[in-house]
Amino acid sequence: MSILIYAESAEGKFKKVAFELASYAKKVAGDLGTTVTAVTVNAGNISELSKYGVDKVLKVNSDKLSGFNAKAYADVVKQAAEKENVKLVLLSSTTDSLYMAPLVAVALKAGYASNVVGLPVSTSPFQVKRNAFSNKAFNITEIATEVKVLGLAKNSYGVYENASSLTEEDFNPSLNDADFSVKVESTEKTTGKVTIADADIVVSGGRGLKGPENWGMLEEMASVLGAATACSKPVSDLGWRPHSEHVGQTGKPVATNLYIAVGISGAIQHIAGINSSKVKLVINSDADAPFFKVADYGVVGDAFEIVPKLTEKLKAF
Ligand code: FAD
After folding, report:
1. Contact 91, 97 (CB under 8 A)
2. What is the CA(201)–ligand 1 centre distance, in A?
3. Is the pTM of this model over 0.80?
4. What is the CA(25)–ligand 1 centre distance, in A?
5. Which uninterrupted H or E stretch holds 61?
6. CB of 129 within 8 A of CB of 118?
7. What is the distance in A from the centroid of ligand 1 to the CA of 268?
8. How many Å apart are CA 157 and CA 152, to the nearest integer?
9. Whose CA is nearest to atom 36 of ligand 1?
10. Is Oxidoreductase included in the keywords of this UniProt record (predicted)?
């Protein structure tokens, strides 16, 4: 009895959340003595999932599913869960997965817990920790149904390599015409920027940058690194940056490979949201800034001198 994950992809490429979900599932499966099966929809490089411990992939390829359709995708996950006789189904907390997960749960007559952070607190009874009120509070939720659906909070666990030998199987679920009564004809991206949720590297700025006019140097460094940009809470409160970039306890959680904090003091509420990042590089003019206590690498100095120099060096790679 495997654990099933829905490995989300966009334009054929897996999203970072798919690898985070696989990493999480692998750990849970190890604790439960079982394996990880993934169901994919029109995804390209299936073998990538083997890096993160997925043992089996049910591949769905269908022109009908080329655009996201919550009801139809939920039905695919439900049929995959039934085929594999799965008792635990894991989804992420992207907009698409948040839309699908309750539909999957209803179809499987399963209990559903969203915003799960961390590994199950207990497997018998089955209890998970969830965040609430934008990370201001946590609760422990017990799911008593035989089949359980969990929505893992984005960037709450991290991505860990754990190679497995993967088997692939074509899966042709039956699609219900009634689910296709509304069709998205075309989509258009408003920005080509890397999002915080998908980024391997995040370049983040604080009040030490003095004003919105100085963000160009962070944008440039982020562009050279293929990174997303983020900011501290006061920066978005002041309107220097959009609220979507606010990270920390009350903002978005970040669990990247590299988090670069520029001119951010390292208040506990900021650290709470980014501490799962693997490597933290802090640039701050104050050697006593609290952020240095949790940094892996620290540069004491003026951001306006250091960031452009660092960017020039990075461009040379
Ligand atoms: P500051 O504290 O003003 O720090 C600026 C830093 O820049 C200083 O360390 C300074 O030495 C450095 N600096 C100045 N000039 C330069 C320079 N030229 N070069 C390099 N460094 C320089 N904050 C968050 O970020 N996220 C949250 O989710 C969050 N949630 C909160 C929830 C609650 C309930 C509360 C009470 C607070 C929350 N805060 C949050 C706010 C948090 O407590 C801090 O006030 C905030 O993180 C500080 O932002 P900052 O580091 O950008 O600014």
Report:
1. yes
2. 20
3. no
4. 35
5. none
6. yes
7. 9
8. 8
9. 269
10. no
- C-alpha 253/C-alpha 107 separation (Å) is 30
Task: State the distance from the centre of ligand 1 to the C-alpha of 312, rounded, in angstroms.
Answer: 26
Q: How far is the CA of 249 from the centre of ligand 1 (A)?
A: 12
- For residue 290, how far is the Cα from the chain centroid? 27
Which residue's C-alpha comes closest to atom 8 of ligand 1? 265
State how far the Cα of 241 lies from the Cα of 263, in Å rounded to an integer: 14
Q: Is 275 in the pocket of ligand 1 (CB under 6 A)?
A: no
Mean pLDDT in consecutive groups of 10 residues from the start of the chain, 317 residues:
94 93 97 96 96 98 94 98 97 93 98 95 95 80 98 90 95 95 74 79 97 96 95 97 94 91 97 91 98 97 97 91
- Spatial neighbors of 240 by CB under 8 A, at least 6 apart, are 209, 211, 212, 215, 231
- Is residue 268 a known part of a binding site? yes
264 labeled binding residue: yes
263 is in an annotated binding site: yes
Ligand 1: does its nearest atom lie under 6 Å from the Cβ of 161? no
How far apart, in Å, are the Cα atoms of 206 and each of 168, 249, 268, 269, 291? 46, 15, 14, 13, 12
Strand partners, 3: 36, 88
Q: What is the dihedral of CA 298, 300, 302, 308, to 10 degrees?
A: -40
Q: Could you tell me which residues come within 8 angstroms of residue 197 by beta carbon, excluding any fewer than 6 positions away?
A: 15, 16, 17, 94, 154, 155, 252
What ipTM describes this predicted complex? 0.99
What is the distance between the alpha carbons of residues 103 and 258, in angstroms, rounded to a whole number? Answer: 35
Q: Does any ligand 1 atom lie closer than 6 A to the CB of residue 302? A: yes
